[in-house]
C-alpha cells in the first residue's frame, strides 16, 4: 500500500518530466529526424523566446494576476530597438539627431518594455483595474504603437553585430539559449532565495494575510509587471535579431503559448503555487510537441487542435491529483 | 420542554450532535418547534444557534441524531431541498444579488415562466408588488437591490421567504439592521404568519423584543440545551443567567499586575463605516493599557470589537480618527508598517483568511512579517529562517508531522500558534488578539491561555477581543464592553461577572 502510494507520489511529482520523456521516446521511433543534435538545438532555440516571456508570465500568475500584453510589448520593444539602431532618433524641431550604439538600442528597447509593463502594474494597483482587462487594453495599445512606430512595414537590415544575438553561437550553444538560461537562472534565484520572491508567493497565496503582515502589495505587483514587460522586451530583441527584421505583427498570439507553458508547468492560475522550472518544462513540452507534429507532417490545423487538447489534459491531470490529496 | 396542549411539534430535533474536526459545536440537542408559535432561540456567540439552524435547513448534512418534519425523518441534501419541503431560512447575512432587481431576487430559483419557457416578467412584477404592499414597503419592484437601504434589503429577503410555502420559517437576527418602524412591520407579518399556523424560529440577541414577539424560548450554551420555557413565565435576568451559565471553562487564575507603566492610550477612537458614511463602526472609544496588562474587549458580533483592533492597527486610516499615544507619545499609524514599527501586532480573527499563507510551511509563515530579520541584501537565509521557525515552534509547542508540511494541513490550534508566532517574531510591545481561541480544541486553548499570561508577565501589553465570556473573565485585568459601536461598560477583573458583561453588551441604542 505504502509502496504504491510512494510510486504515485513520484509519478505526480515528475509528471511533466515523464510526459517529456514519453514524447521524446515516441517521436524518436516515429521519425528519423527527431533524435539529432541539429534538431535538439532547433527546438531549444525555438522555445527560448517563449521561455523568456513565460518566466515573466509565471511571476505575474504567481501573484494571482495575468498578462495578456506580452506579445504586443515584445513587438513594440523589438521595433523600437531596431528603429533606434537603424535610424537613431531625430527631433526635427530642435535639429537634433541622436545615433545609438548597439548597447544603447538594446537598453532603449528594454526600457520601453519595462515601462509598459510598469504601466500595467500601475493601472492594476492604483486604479484597481482587473489584470485581465488592464493587460488586454495594453495588448491593443502596444500593438497600435508598434504599427505607428513602424508605419506598418518591417524594419530590416540591422547589421551583423545585432544579428549575433539571435543567430550566433557561443561555446557551442546558440545565443538565445544562453539568454533564456540566464533569465531562468536569475528567476529561480529570485523566486527561491529572495525576499521579493517570497512576497510574490505570499501575495498570490493569500493577499489579505500578506497585507495584514505589512507587505507592500502594490509595490511588489508593480515590480512584477515591470519584470514581465522587461522580459517581453528581451524576447522581442531575440525575435528581431533572429529574423534581422522587426515585424509589425511580431509576437502575435504569444501570450497564449506563454500562458499554456505556465499552466502545463503546474502553476496555479489562482496564484501562490508554481515554479519557474515547471514553466520551463511546460515550454519544452509545447516546443517538442510543435516540432514533433511538424516532423510528422501533421497539418497545421490539426496541430492547433492537438495543442489545445494537451493543455486541457495537463490541467485535468493536475486537478485530479490535487483532489486526491 | 414546553408541552403545548394537543399540539404535535412540526419540527422535532432529537439528540442532535455535530462536530467540526473533533470539536463539538452541538451536543445532544433536543428541541420541539410547534406550528403557530414563535420559538425564540437564544445563546451567546458560538453557543451553536447557527450550526443548529444550518442542520435544520440542509446546509450541514452530516450530523448525529435525528430531525423530523411532521414525523418524517428529514434528510435534506441542500438548502433548496429544505425550502421545497417547507423549511425556509432567512439568513443574518443578506443573500441577495446586488445588481438584480427586487423582483428578480424574490423569484431567484423559483422563476415563473410562460409557455415558451421564457421568464414571465409581468406576472412576477405583479406578484412582487402585491407582497411588497403587504409588507408596506414602498419600493418599485424593478429597483436593483443595491440601491435599497440595508433595512429594506432585509425586508426583501423576508419577502422572498414569504413566497415559499413555508411550514417552518427560521429568522436569524432579522432585526439587526432594520429601523424601529420596519421592526413593527416585521412583527405584524410574523403575527399574521403565526395565525396561519407557520412555525417561526426566531433567533435574536435583543432580548427585549423577544418578550414582544416570542411565545417560548430555547437557550443554548456551549452547544448544549441550557433551558427552555414560556416567555410569559420568565424574566430578562433569568434568560441572561441561562445564557452565560455557571460553569467556567478551564481554571486560569490571572496573576494581577498593577504597577506597570502605560504603553498605549487610545482617545476618542472613531471608525466611520466605509459603506455608509453617516454610520460609525466605532464611536468615541477611549482606554489605556499598561505594561503587562491584559485588557479584555467583549461585545456581540457587530458591536465594533474587531474594528477597534483594526483601527489601532492602521488598516483603515481614511475612516479612523482619534489619538493614539504609545508610551505617552502621540503617534500617527497610517498603515500596517507604522503599526509594526510602533511595536503593535495583530493576530486577526480569521486565521485562514487573514492570518496564514496556507500553502507555505511553518517557518515561512513565521518569518513573513519580519523577513528582514532572516535576510541580507534581499536574500533570504534559509538556515536563519528555519532556526526562527524552530525557535517559535518550541516556544509555542507547535506540533507538526514534518518540517516542510503546509500549514493548511495542521490542526486549528497549531495553525493559531503559527499566526501568533509570526507576530511574536516581530518583537511586539503591544499584542492585539482577536478571538485567539476560536474553533480550537481544549488542549490548545489551555496552552494559548498560558502563553498569553506568560507574555503579559514578561511585560507585553495585551488587548484581547473574545466572545467567550469565561475566557475574558479568566484572563483580563480590566474589561471594556462594546455595544452598537459604543463603550457601554468598564470593569476591573474583580467587579466583572458574566451577568454584568452580558447586560452591558446588550445595551441597545436609545
Describe this structure in words.
The complex is a heterodimer of chains A (325) and B (510). Chain A is mainly α. Chain A has one domain (35-324). Chain A has 14 helices and 6 strands. In chain A, the strands form 3 sheets. Chain A has a two-stranded antiparallel ribbon. In chain A, helix 3 (37-62) packs antiparallel against helix 11 and helix 9 packs across helix 11 (217-243). The longest helix of chain A has 27 residues, at 217-243. The mean pLDDT of chain A is 87. With 510 residues, chain B is of the alpha/beta class. Chain B has 3 domains: 1-86 and 165-247, P-loop containing nucleotide triphosphate hydrolases (Rossmann fold, 3-Layer(aba) Sandwich), CATH 3.40.50; 98-163, no CATH class; 262-505, Rossmann fold (3-Layer(aba) Sandwich). In chain B, 32% of the residues lie in helices and 25% in strands. Chain B has 17 helices and 22 strands. Chain B has helices at 49-56, 79-84, 102-106, 121-134, 150-163, 180-195, 207-213, 236-244, 305-312, 336-341, 351-355, 362-367, 382-396, 412-424, 442-457, 469-475, 498-505, and strands spanning 11-20, 23-33, 38-42, 64-69, 72-73, 87-90, 168-172, 199-203, 216-221, 224-230, 262-272, 280-290, 294-298, 320-326, 329-330, 344-347, 375-376, 379-380, 430-434, 461-465, 478-483, 486-492. Chain B has a 6-stranded mixed β-sheet, with helices on both faces. In chain B, strands 16-19-20-13-21-22 form a 6-stranded mixed β-sheet, with helices on both faces. Chain B has a 4-stranded antiparallel β-sheet with strand order 2-1-4-5, covered by helices on one side. In chain B, helix 8 (236-244) crosses helix 17 and helix 13 packs across helix 14. The model of chain B is unreliable at 247-251 (pLDDT under 50). The chains are: A mainly alpha (325), B alpha/beta (510).
Amino acid at each position: 500500500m505504502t509502496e504504491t502510494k510512494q510510486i504515485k507520489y513520484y509519478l505526480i511529482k515528475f509528471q511533466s518530466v515523464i510526459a517529456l520523456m514519453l514524447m521524446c521516446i515516441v517521436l524518436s521511433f516515429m521519425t528519423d529526424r527527431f533524435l539529432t543534435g541539429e534538431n535538439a538545438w532547433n527546438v531549444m532555440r525555438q522555445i527560448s523566446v517563449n521561455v523568456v516571456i513565460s518566466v515573466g508570465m509565471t511571476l505575474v500568475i504567481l501573484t494571482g494576476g495575468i498578462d495578456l500584453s506580452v506579445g504586443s510589448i515584445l513587438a513594440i520593444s523589438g521595433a523600437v530597438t531596431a528603429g533606434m539602431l537603424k535610424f537613431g532618433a531625430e527631433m526635427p524641431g530642435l535639429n537634433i539627431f541622436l545615433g545609438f550604439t548597439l548597447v544603447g538600442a538594446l537598453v532603449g528597447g528594454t526600457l520601453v518594455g519595462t515601462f509598459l509593463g510598469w504601466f500595467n502594474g500601475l493601472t492594476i494597483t492604483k486604479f484597481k483595474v482587473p489584470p485581465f482587462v488592464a493587460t488586454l487594453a495594453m495588448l491593443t495599445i502596444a500593438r497600435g504603437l508598434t504599427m505607428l512606430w513602424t508605419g506598418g512595414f518591417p524594419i530590416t537590415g540591422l547589421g551583423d553585430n545585432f544579428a549575433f544575438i539571435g543567430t550566433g553561437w557561443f561555446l557551442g550553444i546558440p545565443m538565445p539559449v544562453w539568454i533564456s538560461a540566464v533569465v531562468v537562472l536569475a528567476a529561480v534565484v529570485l523566486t527561491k532565495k529572495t525576499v521579493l520572491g517570497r512576497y510574490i508567493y505570499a501575495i498570490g497565496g493569500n493577499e489579505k494575510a500578506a497585507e495584514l503582515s505589512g507587505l507592500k502589495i502594490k509595490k511588489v505587483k508593480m515590480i512584477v509587471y515591470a519584470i514581465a514587460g522587461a522580459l517581453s522586451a528581451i524576447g522581442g530583441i531575440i525575435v528581431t535579431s533572429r529574423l534581422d527584421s522587426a515585424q509589425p505583427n511580431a509576437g502575435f498570439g504569444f501570450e497564449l503559448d506563454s500562458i499554456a507553458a505556465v499552466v502545463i508547468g503546474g502553476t496555479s492560475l489562482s496564484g501562490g503555487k508554481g515554479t519557474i522550472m515547471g514553466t520551463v518544462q511546460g515550454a519544452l513540452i509545447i516546443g517538442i510537441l510543435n516540432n514533433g507534429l511538424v516532423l510528422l507532417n501533421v497539418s497545421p490545423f490539426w496541430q492547433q487542435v492537438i495543442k489545445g487538447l494537451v493543455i486541457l489534459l495537463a490541467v485535468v491531470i493536475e486537478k485530479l491529483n490535487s483532489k486526491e490529496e | 420542554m414546553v408541552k403545548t396542549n394537543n399540539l404535535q411539534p412540526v419540527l422535532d430535533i432529537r439528540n442532535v450532535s455535530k462536530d467540526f474536526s473533533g470539536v463539538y459545536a452541538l451536543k445532544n440537542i433536543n428541541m420541539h418547534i410547534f406550528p403557530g408559535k414563535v420559538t425564540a432561540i437564544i445563546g451567546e456567540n458560538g453557543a451553536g444557534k447557527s450550526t443548529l439552524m444550518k442542520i435544520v435547513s440542509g446546509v450541514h448534512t452530516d450530523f448525529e441524531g435525528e430531525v423530523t418534519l411532521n414525523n418524517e425523518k428529514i434528510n435534506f441534501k441542500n438548502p433548496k431541498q429544505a425550502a421545497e419541503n417547507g423549511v425556509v431560512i432567512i439568513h443574518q447575512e443578506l443573500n441577495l444579488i446586488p445588481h438584480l432587481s427586487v423582483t428578480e431576487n424574490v423569484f431567484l430559483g423559483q422563476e415563473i415562466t410562460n409557455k415558451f419557457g421564457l421568464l414571465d416578467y409581468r406576472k412576477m412584477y405583479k406578484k412582487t408588488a402585491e407582497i411588497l404592499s403587504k409588507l408596506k414597503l414602498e419600493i418599485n419592484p424593478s429597483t436593483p437591490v443595491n440601491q435599497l437601504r440595508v433595512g429594506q434589503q432585509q425586508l426583501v429577503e423576508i419577502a422572498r421567504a414569504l413566497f415559499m410555502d413555508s411550514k417552518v420559517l427560521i429568522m436569524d437576527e432579522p432585526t439587526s439592521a432594520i429601523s424601529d418602524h420596519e421592526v413593527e412591520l416585521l412583527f405584524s407579518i410574523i403575527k399574521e404568519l403565526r395565525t396561519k399556523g407557520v412555525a417561526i424560529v426566531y433567533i435574536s440577541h435583543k432580548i427585549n423584543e423577544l418578550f414582544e414577539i416570542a411565545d417560548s424560548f430555547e437557550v443554548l450554551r456551549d452547544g448544549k440545551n441550557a433551558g427552555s420555557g414560556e416567555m410569559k413565565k420568565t424574566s430578562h435576568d433569568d434568560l441572561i443567567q441561562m445564557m452565560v451559565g455557571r460553569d467556567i471553562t478551564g481554571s486560569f487564575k490571572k496573576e494581577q499586575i498593577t504597577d506597570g507603566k502605560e504603553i498605549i492610550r487610545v482617545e476618542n477612537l472613531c471608525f466611520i463605516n466605509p459603506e455608509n458614511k453617516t454610520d460609525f463602526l466605532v464611536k468615541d472609544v477611549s482606554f489605556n493599557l499598561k505594561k503587562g496588562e491584559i485588557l479584555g474587549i467583549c461585545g456581540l458580533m457587530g458591536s465594533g470589537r474587531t474594528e477597534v483592533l483594526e483601527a489601532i492597527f492602521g488598516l483603515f486610516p481614511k475612516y479612523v480618527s482619534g489619538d493614539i499615544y504609545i508610551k505617552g507619545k502621540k503617534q500617527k499609524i497610517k498603515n500596517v508598517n507604522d503599526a509594526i514599527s510602533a511595536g503593535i501586532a495583530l493576530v486577526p480573527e480569521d486565521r485562514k483568511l487573514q492570518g496564514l499563507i496556507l500553502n507555505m510551511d511553518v517557518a515561512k509563515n513565521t518569518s513573513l512579517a519580519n523577513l528582514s530579520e532572516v535576510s541580507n541584501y534581499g536574500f533570504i537565509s534559509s538556515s536563519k529562517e528555519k532556526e526562527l521557525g524552530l525557535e517559535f515552534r518550541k516556544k509555542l509547542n507547535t506540533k507538526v508531522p514534518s518540517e516542510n508540511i503546509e500549514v493548511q494541513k495542521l490542526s486549528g490550534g497549531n495553525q493559531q500558534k503559527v499566526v501568533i508566532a509570526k507576530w511574536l517574531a516581530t518583537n511586539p510591545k503591544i499584542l492585539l488578539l482577536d478571538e485567539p481561541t476560536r474553533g480550537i480544541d481544549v488542549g490548545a486553548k489551555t496552552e494559548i491561555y498560558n502563553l498569553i499570561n506568560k507574555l503579559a508577565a514578561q511585560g507585553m501589553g495585551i488587548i484581547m477581543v473574545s466572545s467567550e465570556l469565561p475566557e475574558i473573565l479568566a484572563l483580563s485585568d480590566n474589561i471594556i464592553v462594546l455595544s452598537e459601536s459604543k463603550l457601554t461598560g468598564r470593569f476591573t477583573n474583580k467587579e466583572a461577572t458574566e451577568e454584568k458583561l452580558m447586560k452591558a453588551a446588550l445595551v441597545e441604542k436609545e
